[in-house]
Amino acid sequence: MTTANTGGTARATRSRTPVQMAALVVGAVFLLVGIAGFIPGVTTNYDQLMGAGHHSGAMLLGIFNVSILHNVVHLLFGVAGVLMARTAPLARNYLIGGGIVYALLFVYGLVIDHESAANFVPLNQADNWLHLVLAIGMIALGVLLGKRSLTATSSPNALGRNA
């Protein structure tokens, strides 16, 4: 922990670990995507935005099928990322757990009929491939950066002891 002097007032600040920064950035991106899904122009066919289901014709960036439910899920994932970035273990869990959720969504998107009621999120091919990329990226960030954070915090010198 370091101390920052802000105009005569000392304030304690903590530096974030790489896994915490990754969770914070991923969470912020999800928040932006969730908000963008409600902005006409950024979301094409905005007048066709539906609560849920495959009948929503709204397309984020003209590519990704979205609905109100889909946008709310992005917003919730974003809030979770920002909140869980507070500690390295929570950040790691957010990235790995979120990556697993997106891997499951990828598989779900492959096996359902996109024109059926089972496509309640809604998903299209672009969503499916994005979910795969998100799954791989989030799990990789959580595993690789989380391992570094756990190693750094469990070393004797990190705990203030001499080796």
Major sheet strand order: 3-4-5
How many structural domains in the coordinates?
Answer: 1
- pLDDT averaged residue by residue: 84
Structural class: mainly alpha
Largest sheet: 3 strands, antiparallel
The number of E-state strands comes to 5
Tell the overall outline: globular
Radius of gyration: 19 Å
Helix content: 55-70%
What share of residues are in beta strands?
Answer: 5-15%
State the low-pLDDT regions, or none. 155-163
Q: Topology as H/E string?
A: EEHEEEHHH
Gap between N and C termini, in Å?
A: 20 Å
Number of helices: 4
Give a brief description.
The chain crosses the membrane at residues 21-39, 59-82, 94-112, 128-146. It is built from four helices and five strands; from the N terminus they run E-E-H-E-E-E-H-H-H. The chain is mainly alpha-helical.
Q: How is this fold's topology laid out?
A:
Blueprint lengths: L1 E5 L2 E5 L4 H19 L6 E2 L14 E2 L3 E2 L2 H17 L3 H24 L13 H30 L9
Antiparallel strand pairs: 1-2, 3-4, 4-5
Helix pairs in contact: 1-2, 1-3, 1-4, 2-3, 3-4
